[in-house]
Specification:
Length: 582
């Protein structure tokens, strides 16, 4: 799906601003900012803890001059499900909270007149949604006291009132989280562009269109000069002596495919870069690549998960400060603006679906929840959205599902998605599944991935506070993974740390412990050439559901939630600047 673009042939009207909002059908309309999660915009726990439907509305108008062509409402993400009404008529709906969708409203908006746009948002999560909610009411990261009768009764009482119980460790921020735009595109139009560049300067293109016309493609360099052209819907173009797209500290050089069709046009940026796994190496442009950078969340005060270009720019600037070269979009696809920014800044992305929480934590088989087809649709849509970004170097099918209790069911479920990802991606990027700390010898699926991504918390959730024992255990486990001769990334590791809490002895929750934890882990990683990546958890402290395990959210950030560095940020800054200099 093409990102909205304003040009000679296309008009984009941004509908960001303050809309009307109400949490229940009989409540008065109140002002609320779009884009932005609704949860933290009012000092009211009903907003924060809301479970169920809510409504947004505003008036929209089509300028009289724009009455020709196709008119679509483009929602970048409504979390989790949406139904869209125009003057009370249902015009579209969408399932899933992290990918864009279009609603065709051609002919429904009278030129020059206005209409009421209303969006009904459903934020309920459960075993039908990605991410997964815990319909059984079992609290993730909680002490359950399941054998206490009154606790059981209390839980039933809670459930009857309606309550979201996330099966994941980040706040369930909801609403119109990303921009909404009214787009007017020509009747005869470009629908999609697919680019597959090679290091020798060849770029294979395919342009999907609707209506009558013929396609022309011109490749422009960063100065806008034409360096190659072709006609027809599908062909190869060769750029002489191409500049490669290199991650930082190299130059992330970008070209543009300027595509025309009938009266329509579209500029699609891309970069010449390749990715490939060979033995235990991850080759980027044919050279071994080392991943070093913290995982992220889309999370900040007040905005929640709302798109904030200023925050994105500041975060990626902090990646520069850290000498970090990558992150994973844990645990859902991010706003498209972030990928465009990383294309420009040379930050590599592991792009993850919202499949987090596919694990029951009991003897119940999560692969019987019937998520297969929906998960496959989400994966296809993610790849279709992000396929041209040079910054995206690998797909992550999901985070920390059950892979050991139901190891064979897990194998069948994830293997099919693995094959689907390879078949759907025109650039055939490597594919991974991010594996939870588990009974790894019985896990059948993790070892079959192109890159083995391991989340490990030795010394924190287990062997707590004993970093020598943590090192011993980590080394034992890494010896196990060595036999597969595949690249391994430590895709999460970290310790909750209260900024400003210090200790002469490095004890859990102190800044000293966080540094000692990373020193201990990194010593083990440095010994092993097949470990090609270290991705601390997390870039910054972030919001979570309330739990006795979370004091004001998850505190494993290298930075506080307002982006102040803890000692560990300085530690990684030194480590990664030395790595960069090598
Ligand atoms: C991992 C999860 C991540 C959590 C982290 C933690 O992948 O979402 O936030 O643990 O507990 O298991 O901090």
């Amino acid at each position: 799906m093409l990102y909205p673009q304003n040009n000679r042939a296309r008009t984009v009207i941004d509908l960001s601003g303050v809309w009307d909002f109400r949490l229940t059908e009989d409540a008065p309309w109140e002002p609320l900012a779009v884009p932005g999660s609704y949860n933290d915009q009012k000092p009211d726990s009903r907003y924060r803890e809301h479970c169920g439907l809510s409504w947004y509305r505003r008036r929209i108008a089509l300028p009289a001059a724009l009455h020709e062509g196709r008119q679509v409402l483009r929602f970048d993400a409504v979390t989790h499900n949406a139904r869209v009404f125009l003057d009370g008529v249902l015009v579209g709906e969408h399932r899933g909270g992290f990918l864009p969708f279009d609603v065709d409203v051609t002919g429904r908006l009278l030129p020059g007149a206005s209409a009421e746009l209303c969006v009904e948002v459903d934020n309920r999560i459960g075993r039908h949604s990605l991410p997964v909610g815990n319909e059984g009411g079992v609290v993730f990261l909680g002490t359950d006291n399941a054998n206490v009768p009154a606790v059981e009764e209390g839980k039933r009482w809670q459930a009857a009132r309606g309550r979201n119980v996330p099966n994941f460790d980040f706040f369930n921020y909801c609403g119109i989280n990303r921009p909404v735009r009214l787009c007017v595109v020509p009747e005869n139009r470009i629908e999609d562009i697919t680019l597959v560049p090679q290091l020798d300067g060849r770029v294979h293109y395919r342009v999907d269109t609707a209506g009558e016309g013929s396609v022309a493609v011109e490749i422009r360099d960063a100065e806008g000069l034409c360096v190659g052209r072709a006609e027809g819907a599908e062909d190869d173009i060769t750029v002489e002596n191409p500049h490669l797209w290199e991650p930082r500290p190299g130059t992330p050089y970008l070209y543009t495919a300027h595509v025309t069709f009938a009266g329509d046009e579209y500029d699609q940026t891309f970069g010449f870069r390749t990715v490939e796994v060979r033995g235990h190496e991850f080759l980027l442009n044919g050279k071994p690549f080392h991943f070093h950078g913290p995982c992220k969340h889309e999370d900040s005060a007040i905005h929640g998960r709302g798109t904030d270009p200023c925050l994105n720019v500041a975060d990626i600037a902090l990646f520069g400060w850290l000498h970090a070269n990558c992150f994973r979009t844990s645990h859902y696809p991010y706003a498209e603006e972030m990928y465009a920014l990383c294309d420009r800044e040379g930050i590599v992305i592991i792009d993850e679906t919202p499949a987090v929480g596919i694990a029951a934590g009991t003897r119940e088989n999560p692969y019987a929840w019937g998520l297969d087809e929906y998960h496959a649709d989400v994966l296809r849509a993610l790849i279709a959205r992000d396929k041209n970004h040079p910054c995206v170097v690998m797909w992550s099918l999901g985070n920390e599902p059950d892979t050991d209790i139901f190891h064979h069911e897990a194998f069948l479920y994830w293997r099919r998605l693995y094959e689907l990802a390879h078949a759907s991606d025109p650039q055939n990027r490597p594919v991974t599944l991010v594996c939870c700390q588990n009974n790894y010898p019985v896990d059948e699926i993790t070892r079959t991935m192109d890159v083995l991504c391991l989340n490990r918390y030795y010394g924190w959730y287990n062997l707590s506070g004993d970093l020598e024992a943590a090192q011993y255990a980590l080394r034992r486990e890494l010896d196990f993974w060595a036999q597969f001769d595949k690249p391994v990334i430590l895709s999460e590791y970290g310790a909750d740390t209260i900024a400003g809490l210090h200790g002469a002895v490095a004890e859990m929750f102190t800044e000293e412990f966080q540094v000692a934890f990373y020193e201990a882990f990194n010593a083990c990683l440095d010994e092993r050439p097949f470990v090609i990546g270290e991705m601390p958890w997390n870039f910054a402290d972030f919001g979570t559901a309330q739990s006795p395990m979370r004091a004001g959210g998850n505190r494993k950030g290298l930075f506080t939630r307002d982006r102040r560095p803890k000692m560990a940020a300085h530690y990684f800054r030194r480590r990664w600047s030395e790595m960069e200099a090598e």
